[in-house]
Amino acid sequence: METNLDAFTASQLQMVLDAPSVNIFAIDREYRYVSLNRLHSQTMHLLWGVDVVFGMNLLSDVIHDEYDRRKAKSNFDRVFAGEELVLIEAYGAVGKRRLYEYRYSPTRLESGETVGATVFASDVTERVRLAEERLALDRRLLEASQLESLGLLVGCVAHDFNNLLVPILLSSEVARSSVDASDPVAELLATVIESTKSAADLTKQLLSFSGRGGVANELIELNSLINGTAEMSRVSVRRRAELDMSMSNQPLRVLANSSQLRQVITNLLINASEATQGSFPKVSISTKAMRVTGKFECQITYPSQVPIGNYAVITVSDNGCGISSEQLEHIFEPFYSTKGTGRGFGLTAVQGIVRNHNGFMAIDSKVGLGSTFQIGIPIAADDIVHFCESADVSGFGQIESGFVPMRILIADDNPSVLKCLMLVCEKLGHQVSPVSNGIATIVAISTQQFDLILLDADMQDISSQEILSAIPEFVTTPVALMSGETYEATLISNPRVHSILAKPFSVETLFSLLKRFKPQFETYSASRKRISGY
Q1: What is the pLDDT of residues 382-408, one digit of tens each?
Q2: Is the Cβ–Cβ distance between 303 and 360 less than 8 Å?
Q3: For FRET with 73, which of 110, 187, 361, 500 sits at 20 to 30 Å CA-CA?
């Protein structure tokens, strides 16, 4: 009867041991198993490939790694000395190691003598991995937030600084033209002008850092840019694959940052060449004009809904290993890379550049067949002109024979910029109507006749897009935008926008712009006295 009772008790005790999802085992002072639950037996088989049984020596018969053996012995010896331990440690053969939280307790008799150790171990591998990933993600998000805040601050400062540079540059050039070249003041003014231009270059770098670097945008013929960039990239591509180029027969003119587009092209070409495989590795790059009218059919599109419009499209394809559907879902994530090496910034940077240019990105890929990347940039209006360099100043300050002044509306919410633009345009013989806010701009355009509108692209009360949209259809007056930031695709593709003046601009640049236009209306009487130059 006692034997049956002992067996029942042992069975019940084993059931209790096997119930928790925790490794439970006990050893004596010779490191031999005296009890263990089923989960611990499974764990030892997983970690060491050993099926443990009662009486087996944990150190010599189970743990094969010398480092792990010394570590376990040290822990058990401390417990045999009376300590209770809580440790997180990794154990297991190469390729099978797992991280566990161990709770060691001495096993004592009623007399207080320590006869062994009892251990409770929980697998925390996934929990620790997730915690580490969360901490790493939190650090990245914090860094990204700090960079975004810094970029926003830098962009705002650079934008305001550009507005300060406009009156400094214009006023200095007007003043220099008013004094004799031999006058010492002329040399001082020349120093101010050169310093101002250097400051303008500095703001370009600041705006570029902040992601608002529209001052670096220029009118680009995309085929020419790609030809030059591809030739430079051919050396890197040639090591792995043949490069095939097919450019559009028609010119593709876009308003873009040339260095950023080169970065996009180079990144896509190198990625494509690294993905190629087989006997005849090949990378292709081509361009075409495309009209997007609805949903864009492909596996991945950024943004998800491509705005309707005309785009210059760059297509880079390869016959490489391709990208799986699972990888495509993460392809734009920072720090994610489909390659064994790399930091995963490439396509994230490409995505940011596409976003800054109001473009789109489309990706198709099949494992084993290759990938195709399409980058679309809005095509610039046919008659758009971008002024960012000093022009020929011959004739500046002199009224040419047959000169007919224009009536110009100048809209800018910066009083200093507005005042200087009025001064320069009036000195050139034109009649100026100044307005300092969006409402007044709309009212003036709707009620008066103008030959040209100089419009600040960054009005505070009403956006320039809203102002352009509010212009009545019967008004055909051309608009020249003035801005020191990125120009929205909706602005540069607006048929009313003829030109763009990048702040800060010089008197010569403004003069060159004005010479392109002719009066549309008879705004002056024939007897009006011509205004003398200075």
Answers
A1: 655 554 444 344 444 555 555 778 999
A2: yes
A3: 110
CA–CA separation, 240 and 282 (whole Å) = 8
Helix (H, G, I), strand (E, B) or coil at 89: strand
What is the DSSP secondary structure assignment for residue 57, as one 8-state letter? B
Is 494 strand, coil or helix? coil
The CA-atom distances, in angstroms, between 241 and each of 146, 232, 293, 314, 366 are 40, 15, 35, 19, 19
Nearest CA-CA partner of 356 in 150, 499, 151: 151
Residue 59: give its domain's CATH number.
3.30.450.20
- % of the chain exceeding 90 in pLDDT: 27
Domain shared by 68 and 21, yes or no = yes
Phi, psi of 496, rounded to the nearest 5 degrees = -75, -25
Give the residue carrying structure tokens 């009025």.
422
Q: How far is CA 504 from CA 199, 222, 254, in A?
A: 10, 26, 22
Higher pLDDT, 221 or 257: 221
Same structural domain, 404 and 267: no
Copy the structure tokens of residue 198.
């250097």
- Which amino acid is it at 340? G
Sign of the alpha-carbon torsion through 505, 506, 512, 514? positive
Q: Is 194 helix (H, G, I), strand (E, B) or coil?
A: helix
Same domain as 116, residue 48: yes
Q: Which amino acid is at 288?
A: K
Q: What's the pTM? A: 0.47
Identify which of 245, 196, 293, 288 has the alpha carbon closest to the alpha carbon of residue 507: 196
Read off the tokens for 516: 């392109």
HSE, side-chain direction, 13 A CA sphere, residue 171: 13
